[in-house]
Each structure stands twice: as C-alpha cells, then as structure tokens.
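PT: before anyone asks, these are the final sequences, not the draft ones from last week. 767 residues across everything. Please model them as a single complex and drop the result in this thread when it's through.
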Amino acid sequence: MDFRLSEEQEKFRQEVRDFLEGEIKQGLWQPSCDAWIMGHDPEFTKRVSQRGWIGLTWPKEYGGQGRSFVDRLILTEEMLRYGAPAACHWFADRQIGGAIVHYGTEEQRKELLPKILKGEAYVGLGMSEPDAGSDLASLKTKAVGDGDYYVIDGQKTWTSGGSRMNWIYLVARTDPDAPKHRGISEFIIDASLPGIAVQPIVDITGGVHFNEVFFENVRIPKKCLIGEENRGFYQVLNQLDYERSGMERLMANYPLFKALIQYTKETKRNGKPLSEEPVIRSKLAQLKIELEIGRLHMYRVAVVMDEGRAPNWESSMSKAYGTAFEQRLANTAIEILGLYGQLSPQSKWVPVQGMAYHSYLSSKGYSLQAGTSEILKNILALRKLGLPTG
Amino acid sequence: MDLALSEEQEMLKKMARDFLTDKFPKTVVKEIEESELGYSPESWREMAELGWMGLALPEKYGGGDMSFLDLAVLLEEMGRACLPGPYFSTVVLGGLTILDAGSEEQKQEYLPKIASGETIFTLALTEFSARYDAAAIETKATTDKDAYILNGTKLFVPDAHVADYMLVVARTDEKSKGEEGITIFIVDAKSPGISYTVLKTIANDKLCEVVFDQVKVPKENVLGQLNQGWSEVQKIIQRTAVAKCCEMVGCIQQALDMTVDYAKERKQYDRPIGSFQVIQHYCADMVTDVDGTRLSTYQAAWMLSEGLSCTQEVAIAKAWAGEACQRVMALAHQIHGAIGVTIDHDLQYYTRRAKAAEVSFGDANFYREIVAQEMRL
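LR: through. Structure below.
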C-alpha cells in the first residue's frame, strides 16, 4: 500500500499547474465551471497538444506517451482545478482515441490518431436518441450496408459538442433482426458529410452544448466501421467505463468551491468574516471531506485502469458519488450566498462570477450524462454485489 | 500509487478472520458482553500467543516488529468480529502511547508485559464535559515530595475495571486551563483511592467511571514531558481515531455482506428481495459508503504508519466514517426488515458498535472543525 504519488508525478502536477497559472496570468482565458465540456478554445487545445498532453496514456507507437492513467488523472485534475477550457479535445482524448487504438483498423489509427494528438479532431458522441436513453440498446438509427458503403438514417440527441464537432462517434443498428444488443455497430464519421444536420438544444443554464443530430441518407464508407460489425454495444459498454472514470465527475464545478471559500473569507457579517461562523465552517468542511473522499474514489479508478482492467463497477461508484457531490456543492453554495445566490452571471451584484447560479442549474445534468446514477447503481448491485436480476 | 494490501497483510487478514470467526461466534460475544469481566482470559492468552498484542511493537520489547498499517488490518477484522475485550485499550491506547512517549526505562518495563498479554492497559482521558479538548482536563495532580497525588473523576474509560495500568491525563499546573500544564501518568490501576463503576453503554463495552481520591503516583511514572502532555494526547487522539476507523470499516463491511446475502436469500412476491431495484440501490449506496470509509481510513493509517503528517486525512477519515456508519446501518436494518431488530439477530451487534464508535475519539462535528482549520477558514 502506498497512497503517495511518485516524485515524477508530483513534478508533473507542478508542471501542469505552472502552465495553467501562466495561461491565466497572460489573460488567455478565465477559469470557469464546466470548462471541460463547455469551454471550446481551439488555441488552448493546440497549446496542450504541443506539450504532448493529449493521448498521454496511448501507446508510443501511436504517438502517445505510454504513461499511466494516474498521470492522466493528475493532468485532468489540474485542468479542472483551474477550470481550463479543454472541451475541444476532451472526448477524443478521454475515450475515442483509446477506442480507436483498441478496436480500430491500422488505417483508422493512422488517419485519426494524429488528428486527435494535434488537437484538430473535435469528436461528438452520437449515442443517445429520443427513445434510447438509459436503454441505449434500443436505439433506432440505422446503418444499412450498400456495397462499399453504409447508409445512415435516424436521429441522435444530447450530442455534446455537436455544434463544433468535425467527427462523430456514432452508434447505429446494423442488424435489425438480431436481439437488440447484438445488432449494433460503432462508426467514426466525418461530421460534414451531406445529410447530417445539427440542431442545438439550449439547456437550463441558457448554454448550448447539447445538440440534436439528424442523419438522412448519409453515405459513409465501410472503413468507418470501428471494430466488429454487430459487436458495437459491447465496445460501447467498455468505452462507457472510461467515459465515467474521470475527475470531471467530481470537479467540474471546482472553481465554484474555490470562489465560495474566498467569498466567505472576504464577506463580513456583524463585523466578522462569514468563514468564522461555525455553521459556515461546518458546511465548507463537510464539502471538503466529501471532495477528498471522492478524490480517493477517482484515484482508485485510475489505479484499476493501470492494472489493465476496465474500471467497471469502480467508475460507476465514483461517478454516481462524484456527481451527487457536485450537486450538493452547488446547493450549499447558494445556501451560503443566500439571496445573492439567485443572481445570474449577467446580473448586477452577482457574487462568485455567477458560478453558483450556473453550477446549480448545470449540475442537474451531471447525474444523467454518461449513465444516470440509477443505471450506475444497477451496475454496482449486479456486477459488484452479485444481486439477482428481476 | 498502490492501494492493495501486501501478501503478508492478506495472510494476516485471513488468519485473523479464521481465528476470530472460530473463537468469537456471536453466542460467545453475547456471553462476554454480559459477563462482569467483559473479556475471555483464555482467548486473551491465545491472542497473545499469536503475537497480536505486540504486533506493532519492536522486537526488542517482545513485539512482532510490524507496522501500524499491519495493525490496521487486524483491527478491521476485530471490528468485523465484534471482538469484545481490552485489546484496543491495551494495544492502541496503552502500548502505542508508551512506545511513542515513554522513556527507554518505561518501554522496557511495560512493553514486554503488553506484548506477552500479561498486563492490561487503558487510557483515562475524558471527563464530565465528554470533550476531547484540553479545557476538559480537570483531574488534578499535585506534588507531594517524591510523588504526585491524583484527584478527580474520569468518565468513559474503557476496560478500567480489569486494567492493570491506566494512563491518566491530569492537570499538573492549576493556573492553566488550556493546553499548558497537562501531564500523562502511568498509574497502577489497583492503587488505593481508585474506584470504578462500569457504565451501561449501547455497545456493552465496559466504559467506566473512574474516581481518583488522593491516589499516590511515583514521580518516575510521568509519561513524556511534565506539563507538556497535551501534544502527546493529541497524537493519541489522532492514532486512536484511525484505529477506531479500522474497526468501523470491519463493522460496516460485515453489515453490508450480511445484508447482501440476506437480500439474495429472502423472498417476497416469489422473488429474492435483492432483485428489486430499490433494494439494489440501497445496497449500492451502502457499498459506496463502505468503500469511501475504507479508502480514507487506509489512507490515514498508511500515513500514520509512514510517520507522515496527516491531521487533515485523519479528520476526514473519522468524520466520514462516523456518519457513513450510521447510513450503512440504517439501510442494513431497512433491508433486513423486522428480523434485524430482534435481539437474537447478529445485526444488532454492529448497530450498537457503530454508534459507539461514531462518538468515540471525536465525532464528525469535532473533525469538521479540524478540517475547517486545515482549510484555513
């Protein structure tokens, strides 16, 4: 047992911090909540790429660094701590690159991995559909073989980053007659193909990162298939383990926590800083405790991945835990801010740059994306605890 | 980063589980709980023969030269088994404190006797205020030639009624009410002037009121520095809190395991209740709490073991464990249904111990304030 990070890892953390602090000092961007998914900054992604920080865990032969998942967790943890605008490369770096390394053909690897590494491939995730949410296997978007092509018809929704993507990672039905889990395949396709239409969805924060994506008679070359035809669902399940595994499920609104602590130190009530009031101290300390418990869960997941195992129930546990924490953080923040907590980022008198308002609303979605907390608890019950299915 | 136990620790864990399962079925735990002694002298000797009392003591004092982390593994199993008796008092409160603060002479005198199982130790710290702060220490020690005279009352002293020695925290400087002027004494528990009353507690675990009435203690029995004992008391509280967490991990892990087993077996509406999603989600919440407790507990234990400064990590572990235990036990009961609230069911042993452990050596409120200080609020 050794809970320490290695000296190199501590050095790496410092290197990432120095980089991010330098960026902030230069005024290149402002820290914000949800910047991993909403902060699209192609130039920032380029600079991250130049440092070799995309594809950190991929094998060296594919241009990665062959480094550990704990290393990557350190990197992403710092990105989140500073609220860095990493949305352009986040999905591709987190799961798509890995999936292509794992299931892709040599041709796909040669074509796509360098683009991801250079920070030029913005990949949208085409999984959910209007009638296929938690029950992803019931998806209806079709991919019908036609010579050297598949023809795609259907609709995806909640596609994150859809308005900026130049690639779509698409899950579609290739065998309508097979049992629903066994007729699904995965594709990576060019988002600019004729017949693809993207319709933004405004979320409750007023922001746009979800989209509806319509496919009408879209012809894609057969080489876009990833892995085995009709085995896509099992590949997706594996990918979801990775999608759920990260620190973004605990620290997406960390900038709010930091700002909230600062606020309580600077705001006086009856001549004393709020941070000296026992109730406020207790609330903030409880958040810190819950955050640190969450960090342990997250690091455990990375350790599991470094052991070469997909973090199946572990990432279900950490994600369900982490997103519930983020929601409590947002809630407690508004409690502490009181009447000011309701002010929108654009309002006069808004405290903590409106992060409490934003985070309170946006965190409602945290426990839905990439597997609802209910689905994650099912996974824990069935796969970790071995409880019987109904 | 490596979160796994070593091969030796796994072996220790297995050996401990086998021994404790064999020797302490709940029928035996019940008998011991109800007995006046509160422990089984026969099993006590056997545990000493296994080297458990001296496990984390150096070889030169008759110990096994293992680490605090190794001891953590053993304590987890003791929590799982609901082991009754003065192991915790003797080893964690007594042995580790003497090892940390004692003079070479004191170590040579007392540690081999602890390692061999010959003596039982405990710690007399808390008083009427039931708080773990320096202001709570009102028991007085006044000088009288080559001795100190102790006067005062200690409360919630575990196993005092069977102890051979007590470490007594007393005020040696009357002028001070704070951290200055506190001293720890090694007191022969059978000294004239000491009287005990065993309190009736939720865990039936023999917490005592101990009254000191003109109790004479030789001057050489000062443990550590005169008047500067509070810093050692803080270390004791920290170490003990982590050791308590280890027992709590064992406690709620067992409660979870029993609950999952029950949910798989118990049928209603012609199907195991564990196939109902609401029960599954309760179990998922339980295992998440158990794992969070385990991770934070072992982090703190590992840091203590490595001699690293870990005020915040200990505070987080105990604050979390105290409240997580209550959530886990509440759900364990909900899933067990009415059978779980009967006195003959094993679950109640865990319910009672989890509550006692929550308030022992600092509850969540106590540690949240420490976390707040660590956050520089």
